Amino acid sequence: MGAGTQALECFVAGVTGVFLVMALLQLAVVFSSKLAIWIESRGKKDDVSQAGKS
User: Most CB atoms within 10 A, among 3, 42, 53, 54?
Assistant: First the structure.
């Protein structure tokens, strides 16, 4: 019975690890997307303010 429990424990640990890594990757993608959109919109505001000065 020890080998069966060890195999199940290893499987659960692997699935949990994959889930955590995928969740962290998803958060990284969401935040980097929001950051890119913020930087893009900030750049457009700078272009508009520069156009008004000339």
Answer: 42
pLDDT digit string (tens) for 32-42?
999 999 999 98
Helices marked H in 1-54: 2-53
Per-residue burial over 8-39, b = 16 or more CB atoms within 10 Å of its CB, e = otherwise: eeeeeeeeeeeeeeeeeeeeeeeeeeeeeeee
Q: Which long-range contacts (CB under 8 A, 24 or more apart) does 14-23 make?
A: none
Q: Cα(32)–Cα(35) distance, rounded to whole angstroms?
A: 5
